[in-house]
């Protein structure tokens, strides 16, 4: 049962803004990308398209605290931790660390809550239980790790 | 003294994702754009570049709750409300309403906290007091409006 | 029969990059958005979703020449001109003018070619004739205007 | 003397649009990112910030031909080839190949022209010679390779 994953990416030029730092909206793209890499690491695409009707995981809540700026070509490690698991939803915590600093420094932390929805033929989306394939593989992180993650 | 502003925009194709809805990161771009329009409405660019050293308003916290999906060509009204005003920071609340629904429907709500920083010649950014030009024009919304905004 | 359209937008903060100017990829988003506004002005969404199978207009060629930089809060007029109309494709020319200059100054010009495709149930996309609703409303601009547009 | 470079990336969810494919503007972000990786492979950041005044490489021309769609989680190889080298400019050719196909398939090809500019203290940008550090390391690809690249 998996409850965490880490990925590293390098800041791209197009992700910066005229203040010379990564635009704050991009941290949400980073979070989602590591969530998807986490799912892939378990052998599942987040698209969950082999289900009928197809399932998706839209976000219902997203937040981020920005501690230090990230700049072009910085290497950032994004650490995802499963904080809550409901029958139809998952909540993750995130920590962003800039690796090209000595020592590496935390630059941001985030939280996402996603719900499982079924995409019906008529175009509607309705909440649906997380599939067994997901609930069998993903579990909530140990309490101490969640607390350490959220507070330190 | 101003404490709120509304702007309307139409969802662009490039803002959607393969789920057929506005990508969740774009709500943060929308929030920022209406914050800037609010500043322009007061005769001030958010860039605050006529100060020496130049001032900026980086985000230290951002969050959004997603209630209903937005789709291509939807018209969305973004309402910004000043919720807190410190000597060096501002917090805003946001409500997103889809206007092309009958009646218009709330689709998301958000919160941003920004701090005033001075961009020094050596490339560093340090917290700085909000300039008088800003504090003279912007005030906190009445408590009832903030409460109505946050909860309804 | 329509062959041109103009729209004005203001440069948003998130569209700039660390060089302090609009990131070059955004000019392609701007082109597409005015193409869609052109279609809307004729009473048609570019999505063309009332057809069965649904039609779309993916890009097969895109180009842009950058003459002068655009910056945050600049007002830019985007002028689209229909340059070619085939049975399954359309080509457009674009001119970008910065309006908050005296006199307004051309900052970029572009070209897009789109083809009509049908989105089949099995997920495939295949070229399809432009629907009559489109070909009845859109025509190629007069030759002199196209030449003036491309060269001046 | 280097004249080419390859990088591989995986399509992210936020890079798709409601048509279910990578939004066409993102191919330009992909091109730029591999250009920067090419520079890094030579020991130079594209920012060239150790020069006084600082140098940059804004784009003056960009184009792309789209042959096949790219979708979420596709692995795409981007191959950059130096096609022209002037005293103040560089032109590159690009080929995009989807690797998770058997055999790998070309999905797009592109071209970029960049000019070297100096960013002066007064905010202006003016064309400047490419620095020796760049011209000593980068050369034009052999003619046969350029021809093969552009046409095949």
Strand runs of chain A, count: 8
Instruction: Provide the residue-averaged pLDDT of chain A.
Output: 93
- How much of the residues of chain A is beta strand, in percent? 35-45%
> In which range does the helix fraction of chain A lie?
10-25%
Radius of gyration of chain A: 16 Å
Oligomer: homotetramer
List the secondary-structure elements of chain A in sequence, H or E: EHEEEEEEEHH
Segments of chain A where pLDDT lies below 50 for 5+ residues? none
Q: What's a concise summary of this model?
A:
Four copies of one chain form a homotetramer. Chain A has about 150 residues and is α+β, with helices and mostly antiparallel strands.
Molecular structure report:
- The structure is a homotetramer of 152-residue chains.
- The two termini of chain A are 25 Å apart.
- By secondary structure, chain A is α+β, with helices and mostly antiparallel strands.
- In chain A, β7 (117-119) and β8 (125-127) form a beta hairpin.
- The model of chain A has no long low-confidence stretch (mean pLDDT 93).
- Chain A is 19% helix and 36% strand.
- Chains in contact: A-B, A-C, A-D, B-C, B-D, C-D.
- The interface between A and B is medium-sized, with 23 and 23 residues.
């Amino acid at each position: 049962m998996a409850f965490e994953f880490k990925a590293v990416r390098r800041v791209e030029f197009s992700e910066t803004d005229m203040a010379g730092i990564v635009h704050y909206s991009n941290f949400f793209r980073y979070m989602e990308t590591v969530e998807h890499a986490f799912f892939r690491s378990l052998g599942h695409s987040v698209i969950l398209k082999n289900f009928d009707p197809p399932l998706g995981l839209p976000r219902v809540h997203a937040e981020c605290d920005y501690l230090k700026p990230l700049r072009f070509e910085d290497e950032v490690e994004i650490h995802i931790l499963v904080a809550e698991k409901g029958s139809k939803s998952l909540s993750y915590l995130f920590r962003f660390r800039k690796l090209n600093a000595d020592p590496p420094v935390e630059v941001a932390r985030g939280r996402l809550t996603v719900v499982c929805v079924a995409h019906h033929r008529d175009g509607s989306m309705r909440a649906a239980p997380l599939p067994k394939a997901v609930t069998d593989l993903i579990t909530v992180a140990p309490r101490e790790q969640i607390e350490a993650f959220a507070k330190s």
